[in-house]
Amino acid sequence: MADKPVVRRRVVKTGISEERTNSSKVQSQYQPYKDAAWGFINHWYPALFSNELPEDHVEGIQICGIPIVLRRVDGKIYALKDQCVHRGVRLSEKPTCFNKETISCWYHGFTFDLDSGVLSTIVANPEDKLIGTTGITTYPVREVAGMIFVFVREDDFPDTDVPPLSDDLPFRFPENSERFPHPLWPAAPSILDENAVALGMHRTGFGNWRIACENGFDNAHILVHKDNTIVHALDWVLPLGILPTSDDCITTVEDDKGPKGLMQWLFTEKWAPVLENDKLGLKVEGLKGRYYRTSVVLPGVLMVENWPEEHVVQYEWYVPITDDTHEYWEVLVRVCPTEEDRKKYQYRFDRVYKSLCLHGFNDCDLYAREAMQNFYADGTGWDDEQLVATDVSPITWRKLASRWNRGIAKPGRGVAGALKTTSLRFKDTADGMRPGYKVPKVPDEA
Amino acid sequence: MADKPVVRRRVVKTGISEERTNSSKVQSQYQPYKDAAWGFINHWYPALFSNELPEDHVEGIQICGIPIVLRRVDGKIYALKDQCVHRGVRLSEKPTCFNKETISCWYHGFTFDLDSGVLSTIVANPEDKLIGTTGITTYPVREVAGMIFVFVREDDFPDTDVPPLSDDLPFRFPENSERFPHPLWPAAPSILDENAVALGMHRTGFGNWRIACENGFDNAHILVHKDNTIVHALDWVLPLGILPTSDDCITTVEDDKGPKGLMQWLFTEKWAPVLENDKLGLKVEGLKGRYYRTSVVLPGVLMVENWPEEHVVQYEWYVPITDDTHEYWEVLVRVCPTEEDRKKYQYRFDRVYKSLCLHGFNDCDLYAREAMQNFYADGTGWDDEQLVATDVSPITWRKLASRWNRGIAKPGRGVAGALKTTSLRFKDTADGMRPGYKVPKVPDEA
Amino acid sequence: MADKPVVRRRVVKTGISEERTNSSKVQSQYQPYKDAAWGFINHWYPALFSNELPEDHVEGIQICGIPIVLRRVDGKIYALKDQCVHRGVRLSEKPTCFNKETISCWYHGFTFDLDSGVLSTIVANPEDKLIGTTGITTYPVREVAGMIFVFVREDDFPDTDVPPLSDDLPFRFPENSERFPHPLWPAAPSILDENAVALGMHRTGFGNWRIACENGFDNAHILVHKDNTIVHALDWVLPLGILPTSDDCITTVEDDKGPKGLMQWLFTEKWAPVLENDKLGLKVEGLKGRYYRTSVVLPGVLMVENWPEEHVVQYEWYVPITDDTHEYWEVLVRVCPTEEDRKKYQYRFDRVYKSLCLHGFNDCDLYAREAMQNFYADGTGWDDEQLVATDVSPITWRKLASRWNRGIAKPGRGVAGALKTTSLRFKDTADGMRPGYKVPKVPDEA
């Protein structure tokens, strides 16, 4: 290599270029987002699928560094901080509920009212003066279309200020059909529609939630999908990438009421699909147009309209668990008015969508997100990334999220993941257990 | 949830209550205990069972962040710091003893006198000027009833100040029968009694030693045992919990000589067993009284008199290995004057005690201790725990331990566990090896 | 132990002796070496064996905290920084090369010129203003005797200053036969000789590169090999250790040109082999002299002349990956002028050298190095080690390396191993993957 004269086509500089779109001035406009390693708090997040919490069952999860326990009683779901006030133990590890109104800590019997969270009694110490003077935070719950949502809030966030679930869900149609016309596909359904059925899955992602979130609506990343089976099986025209052609290629939505987010004007003249690159010998071979549109709303919910087929919409969430794990949700929604519709949809989901889309197609995004983790984990990436024109998407998102989030979660304290190096973490890892989302329950006496 | 008016029975406050018994004033009385993450040094600790160290064998362990190597020669056991003065290597990894007086480092042949610890020669460098000018710390050893105890001390703690083993073992009977009468059960044996036989096991606990220690004599935690097999098989009356009824429910022992600790006046009017809770629909069904009494002495030794049966006593130790691992010992002691007695006792231990008590019953305590680890590991728990009346037990212990410990171990330096994130730690973990206590020996050339 | 009077042969002191050879004055002469946890940069290092990189293949590795990607095109190898300028992703994870002149990032199509490293285009964004204004560092490559070497440099180290590969390889013979006579064995071959064949292996070592490096030429460590199979099978006289007899037992080489290092005058009167220790009852039984000589040159390359047999030389490298992992190379070199010679050499390597030497003999060195890791990892060892006369070898090396290294690598930023506790690291560990050297490639869609 040292023998041959170096051929330079242009001026070669390694290091940070002044031509990157994320100048320090731009960066200063999204500093809150850079601070939000543990997530945005005081927002609605999906917690579990309905069928993960049968009647009378208890599950423990963690969101934004907060441990949360859920219990279903007579169909209704309660969510409370999964941390006994006594010695910090997780109630969910060994579910102990003596009646329908309370949940108890299995260790010393501290008992909490499901509705209010107050410490209402202690099993073998019912006169203790601590009773009634403290309690655990409760979290509002909504259950729709087979999904359980929890409003993850700061301890002192008042009930009266809790916004409707719809404020943290994607734009709905046809309400937004005028503002965001969709001549190439029918109105996308919403999880809030009557008879909406949400089918999907969630799994833990090994990286920060923001890195995962930005991948979904980034119009240059679709290159990772060029070899996916479904693309070729269904003969899709999937571009190599899509380029913004004007400054208004993205519209932000910042109404007084409703979700806050951005819409990308895909399949209009504001975005030009790139179907070939002569110099590199690349050319998209598909014949069938595959129209879709992406948008994202706080706290970081992706919507892909008309995906993977007409009358189906794909939602994604990247729910922060800690500062370096998140729960990745992929959900397909379709309105199914009849039982027959539900069966057909479940069948198509099981036979086509799950394997080819949720796994096949989206699995590429999993490793893509993981591939960025080392660069961003120690902060280097947030300073040294060099963004380009197509990154107008994440940049716009970061600024908007910085303006409209309802709170920046503090780092977890006294919870799993607060300290990365506990012996318990190493023990679980030695036993083959990856960092996770749900709390493993203690086994019965063998 | 947001639709229904919130029902409040009492004033709900989340966060720290002023009614907790661990006020800041109380906390200041046990600050030394809060500083003792790596343990109390200059105390006697169990190291191994006798049968874990046959004649001429060598084993390496770690206590209070100090690596220790043991060797048995002609029946006698020597304990020395398991760290070659040269380059810090553990002698125990590849036992190398050329004669009965010394132990050598397998790496460069540095040789230490077993008795004094002095560097007495180097295998291929016997004239080096370092010889005789340095050495490794020695630790007094006592072997009783099938257990090996080591006095784990600071490097400069003089031999002349080494207390008798009995100073760090639980109260003995009948010496203390007058001070602590036991009308409901016969005098509990001691490991120091003639013909005492100690049977049990030790395993690594994944959490700080203090969190483990406090569990054993905490009278409200017995709730975790309510479903244990042995309780129902033997039809025990095991309370839901036990409440203190007076300020002198615990007596501390702080004599000039002898062990320092506390005794709990269980099964007297000073502690009231709670056998039912109407509101929660709980009621203890057992018929057979099961009398026992707990006490704890420095450095953190639990005694359960009359457990699990008459004439048997249970001891527990929570020996600090690092600040987040400890070795948990469960030992049952019985005096067996004849060989026939020994056989019967060994048989009952193998057939009943080991599975139903040491595993079945005590396994609950294992997960209970682990369940507290995340809350305390980053310090949150030490500040934010909210203790109640029954916590007079750990609070008294913490204050007493703060007054009477013989030294607070410094954080380990240059030893396993000092740095939690070495590649060696990750390699072992990848290979399925949990954090442990004993040093794995290097394999022979395959 | 407390009963028996302590027998002291000499004054026993634990702790740091004033007689250690690494006094603070001596230590100050190698402070740069103490700072070089991540390695010496701007040096030639082995990257892969030639057969690990077939035509058109791509591999990712890491050296001195720098991720490096290699690609072979028409027989020629290119090495570039394995970190896309966009969002830090490793190009090697999913090799994507659209032509013979470039390598692309599989994520967003950023495309780099192999020769210059410049960002020459972006697959679906060929007009972006970032193009041509930045790029990734290139690294000179040399391929000899079946090994691929890379000059790992700082980003701004000029091409014109890149030294020849021979400057970072051991002393050659017969060029140095006058300066370093070898009456007892024939001139050792070099990897740079015509028809030189290098056979060997590389594997990841779990510890800092410096700790590994110092083991190889330390004349007192050979004690660990006393029980190795090959020693007894071939009836070697392998000393218990070798002692320096004069101050000039080591000669440093610090010529204007050429490698910088040290030569040890083994098998001259300057080093006395120790074959027995009466006091400890040790005596070497071998009959056949086994003559060899060790030397080491920057950046830390060991040469063992005449090992394991005449006309064969052993080289070792300890290539820093991070501050606590290194890639350990063991390579045997022989000049094989004919195809017949190659076959015979390969056969002897497969049948004898690989199992008895590279594994059997050298495996002892693996655990010896790991055994030091805890002592040095948190810095304790660098301060508290107590060196002796035989440590003139590592001490001389440390001083020389401090004088002649071409740069001290900065800690890795935004790369694997910069942060030890990422969830990705724990996930891989849970899956049984040890910390490594090569980048695992993303699997194809299943």
TrEMBL record, chains A, B, C:
Keywords: 2Fe-2S, Iron, Iron-sulfur, Metal-binding, Oxidoreductase. The keyword Oxidoreductase applies. Residues 44-150 form the Rieske domain. It comes from the Bacteria. The keyword Iron applies. PROSITE patterns: RIESKE. GO terms for molecular function: 2 iron, 2 sulfur cluster binding; metal ion binding; oxidoreductase activity. It holds the Pfam family Rieske. Transmembrane segments: none annotated. This is Rieske 2Fe-2S domain-containing protein. It comes from Rugamonas apoptosis.
